[in-house]
Specification:
The structure is a single chain. By secondary structure, the protein is of the alpha+beta class. It is 39% helix and 24% strand. The chain contains eleven helices and 19 strands. The radius of gyration is 26 Å and the shape is elongated.
Amino acid sequence: MRCKMLITMAVNARADASAALQIPQEIARISALPTVRRALSWLRSREAEFAGWQMDLSRVGAPPFGENARGEWLLDRFRDLGLENTHRDPVGNILAFHGGSDTHCVAVSAHLDTVFPAGTPLNIKQQGSRIYGPGVSDNGAGLTALLAIASAMRTCVVKPSVPVLFIGNVGEEGEGDLRGMRHIFSASPYKNLILHTLVLDGAGSDTIVAEALGSRRYEVIVRGPGGHSWSDFGAPNPILVLATAIHEFAQTTIPVSPKTTFNIGVIRGGTSVNSIPESASMRVDIRSTSMAEMERLEAALHLALDRAIDSENRATEQRGPQKHRPYGLNCEVVPIGDRPAGELDSNARILQVIRAVDTHLNNAAQIQRASTDANIPLSQGREAIAIGGGGSGGGAHTLQEWFDPAGRALGLTRILLIGLTLAGAGR
């Protein structure tokens, strides 16, 4: 048995070594193809056009659950390029193929939505080479890269061996809860046809998100009878329940490893300063690289709420008159987000390819863990990574967001070579 194991390990090691040699050779071969060389040159020469696209799409609002207008903008661009089977799916994702459809494919995606609510002023402007305004980097940079790669392939007649599926997906940010990618990998006709997924999110070329950070989000609602602050003093107060629960929950021990965090991001309640509120709510975000730690924190949250309600009921008995009984204090914990964790196998082909492409381009990039659209395929044990669209950006999720195109050509070259190495070309 031990001899068989050693032989198997040796065979696997030889196979890995062979793949490690073949992938760089394949990248060099693809890079030298005339159509690919034209595409790479085209990408390097079109920055003014890319900046125009980026500003145009960023001026089209895409608030959470309101991505339709931006999706229509992208759908029109895909149709202008002559991509195949361009359409909007039942949840609002925009899809288009290059090189055929309805067969195994490589997916390249970028999310349409931003964190900014409907009505946010979209004052997009360019100063020098930089672009400023909400959403210009996250995910204006990713969407621009998606469109640039599709354009380069069509304009320069780059023919992949396996079709490329371009996706502008909904629901990546906040309470969108990855609903676009959930649909792609659970209910779409392509759910079992996607071989690899390359997610384009934000700016940069120095990261590889190959580890999916899990998160769970809850809305906690505490309800009571309410009343007047003077005449009904003593009635239970939902805001005091939340305050007590937050204080206790904040004492929960958090491990350094596996890294785990929590946040109370929103608190609402009450109608006036002299009213005992009938309800109060808070929104809680729990994140960890460990599903077990997330479950432990969820249990700690429930325990803190139970104790806070008991504490407020006891306090009410001490300070309130008999007429306020029964008190009717209750609590509801509503899940509003559940992003699964996952991790790419260190020997996955997509990881070997991106490492080899970075070596080919003399580009330094680090593996990171984050919450992105790649969470969905990674949690299913499928090959996926998330990377930036090139350039650099800052101020994400603020009205002062910015994008600098310096280095965009490197990022686009990187994306094209990764996609074509995964999909094959020129054979």
